[in-house]
Amino acid sequence: MGIADMLRALWRPAGKQADRSAFALPLMVQARFAPRNYENFAREGYAGNAIVFRCINEIAVAASSVHWNIAADGRMLAEDHPLCRLLARPAPGMSGAALLEKIVTCRLIAGNAYVEAVGPANAPPRELHVLRPDRMRILTDRQGRLAGYEHETAAGKRRLPSDPVRGLGPVLHLAAFNPLDDHYGLSPMEAAAAVIDSHNAQTVWNKALLDNAARPSGALVVQGNAGLGAEQFERLKAEIEARFSGAMAAGRPMLLEGGLQWQEMSFSPRDMDFRQAREAHAREIALAFGVPPLLLGLPGDNTYANYREARLALWEQTVLPLVKDLAARFGAWLGPRFGRDIVISPDLDRISALAPRRERLHAMLEGASYMSEDEKRAAAGLPPRPPG
Questions:
Q1: Residue range 138-167, pLDDT digits in tens
Q2: Which of 75, 155, 279, 335 has CA atoms 20 to 30 A from the CA of 25?
Q3: Is the dihedral of CA 299, 301, 305, 309 positive or negative?
Q4: What is the pTM of this model?
Q5: Cβ(83)–Cβ(119) under 8 Å?
Q6: What angle do CA 34, 2, 209 make, to 5 degrees?
């Protein structure tokens, strides 16, 4: 709302209302929050907030870089195995890393990610596709148990069955834990929604302040009971809008005459300390997603001694638990389809960010004189030494 709109709404000429000699902006307003659904989380959070976007990208890109070890019946599968080829190239034009990045991004935004297996009936799948969470609806039976899924597209709705006993349904639902719902997951963006709204509101405020920097926060008070006539009101309104609105008029002094006096009515951005408030909100958002603020370039965070420790904390506390959970669920879902006991786990030795942890482990094992060589190798995740 510009100066003219506020004047029109809050100040009327003396000829129409003689006892009104000042106008002021209301200081107390009810907080408004964006609706909490996938579309708003994606639009106002992921696409509209740089901190949220960076947090989700940090986690999704890190998770998608993990190489998976795929074993069946205790043996590693060869790279040319159909399951390995499927996870490496899940769909035409899509890599396994891109699939995992989409899954993690959807789960962090919505708390839910859905993967559909496409292929002939009663046969291993040939393709894997990530379905948008807002287009999926969980179907339940009379007892509230999972009965299937409904997928809505521009072409219409289709039902995807589910077999919760054998796990052979065409859809893998990767939901985060939600204490208030039996089926749908809870997104970290839900926990940080109020802070994200506040951070976005501060961004809008700063932009509006830049666009209309000379609009002071306060009231023009007419001294005495003379009031303003209709002509005086229109002239003052036009002059304020022409000379004191917009970024180019920032800092321009206001010349008051005819008994007018400017009275400050609200805090200035400096008094409200918007910069510190924005940084505090940004740290809260990072906390909800499990990303150390140091990785986002936020000042004032001395929790970690250096960037390397912060990166290690991101992997150990956020990325690895997420990747291990996704790998275990994929193994349990795809194993019956390939007729084997499939175990999928992340290859920790290929993660460069975990090098400090490996170094500490190897140093500890080197000095563990009470352990045999095979015990040390097992603790380091290595197979026993071959005979001889």
A1: 998 888 888 899 999 888 999 998 876 665
A2: 279
A3: negative
A4: 0.75
A5: no
A6: 70
